[in-house]
Amino acid sequence: MIRKKQPAPPDMSSDGAVTVAAVEAVFDGCYDFESRDLRIGGDQAQTARLCFIDGLVSGSDVAEQVIKPLTDPRRFSGNISAADVIAMLLGGSVYVYTAKSRDKLGELTGDLLNGFCALIFDKERTAVTFEVKSQQRRSVEAPKEEKVIKGAKDAFVETMKINTTLVRRKVRNAHLKIKEFNLGMRADTAATLIYIDGFTNEGIVAEAARRLSGIKTEGVLTSAVIEENIVDNYRSPFPQVISTERSDKFCMNLLEGRVGILVDGLPLGFLVPGTFSQFMKVPEDHSGHFIVASALTLLRYLAVFLTLLAPAFYVAVAMYHQEMIPTRLMQSMIEARSSVPFPTAVEVILMLLAFELLQEAGIRLPSPIGETVSIIGALIVGQSAVEASVVSPVVVVVIALAGIAGYTMPNQDMGSALRLCRFLMVLAAIALGMFGVATASAILVYHLAGLESYGVPYMSPFAGSEGRHLSRALFRRSMTVKRDREPELKTGDGGEAKL
Questions:
Q1: Is the pTM of this model over 0.85?
Q2: Which are the contacts of 279, defined by CB distance < 8 A and separation ≥ 6?
Q3: Domain limits of the chain?
Q4: Helices within 171-319 (DSSP H only)
Q5: Confidence check: pLDDT of 284 > 90
Q6: What is the rounded distance in angstroms from the CA atom of residue 51 to the CA atom of residue 54?
Q7: Under the phi-then-psi rule, with left for phi > 0, alpha for psi from -120 to 50, and beta for the rest, what region is 377?
Q8: Alpha-carbon distance 429 to 435, whole Å?
Q9: Given Cys at both, which of 115, 222, 251, 482 links 170, Cβ 3.0 to 4.6 Å?
Q10: How far apart are CA 434 and CA 291, in angstroms?
Q11: Closest by alpha carbon to 242, among 488, 454, 484?
């Protein structure tokens, strides 16, 4: 019995030849992959295979902008060769604004997965791809997580091209560069690096590009994949990448000399380097009066100390240093604690845990229910705990004050880091009293002072500049006065420019 020689399987590697069999083998089993033969100019002698992924492309655009001109006999008439057809397609014979010639299978499949349709010429092992992306995407809306008082109300969406357009509209500068990267070994997510050429520090740009291109992951579907792979110290709970959904905040930081990162599928913009003082600022500081903005900035720094130290300070004083409490306050505290069965340490820990549970419940539940649960829980649980003599009223006041102070943080990641440190401060106070609070504070300051973000001290200008630029972090100068750029960023215009 003579066996017939089986045909060689199509080359499905990324550098394989572009053929109809290879493309159909790549998308074998994909119900949304569509293909059909087209007669070029209505001539049976010259045919090509049209391929696209349903849902990623606009069907009406494929029909009107690609199929209709391709089958027009007046446009492709006579005994025209495939090479001539390809040249005419690339020269503008169809109504699509983007046309690319592909002779590698990996490039072709990448185009198909990005909303292109492909016209494959099998004998020439070449394809011409046309961008006909579907317009089914979320429209630009006002920011939901970062409140806008006086400012632009256009937030980033999940489509990167829309996000880059928002940036272009605000920074109309020919030196604004947008470099593209492909991230993820399986998901192949597009990302862009954005900076102002000639102004942004070239060392920061090069380092950000190196770290971004060095990300090894299956796919970029969450912000943590970006943040934890491009920071200097991923073990630190404190954020080192500025993330924002506001396009105006993103552009403000670009104009200050930072590097921006946008990722397709994530409605966020990332900015590096991130410093502690930058996490304490909001875009409204540049919208309101400079005196009011300066006062609010100082209030936020005061809130940092309150949310960190208020519970620990109360525990240390109540357990070890009662002589620091005024006599009348001490008498009221003794009366309030006379019927409480738990020691001070247990009271504070229980209230901190209850506060975190209520906050987590409010975040995870749907908005109307979550707000109701948070309000009812805070009122009923707190009041019931006091009336039932489970905790003293002073502890409720201290924990509520620390919690409210934590809510003033403009950045949620910074607020979460401070909440974690608040627990550690309380444990230190329980163990060693005021000495424990001082020791834990010194360790925290040492940790923060040792952090760097792309060569910039994390605590600048509080550390690394000998205090010469403290006013820049604590106060906002009037817009009528030229502002000094952050010297740590080493921008390319000599350090002075007016925003």
A1: no
A2: 239, 242, 409, 410, 411, 413, 414
A3: 20-131, 160-274, 288-457
A4: 202-213, 223-230, 247-255, 290-319
A5: no
A6: 10
A7: alpha
A8: 8
A9: 251
A10: 36
A11: 454
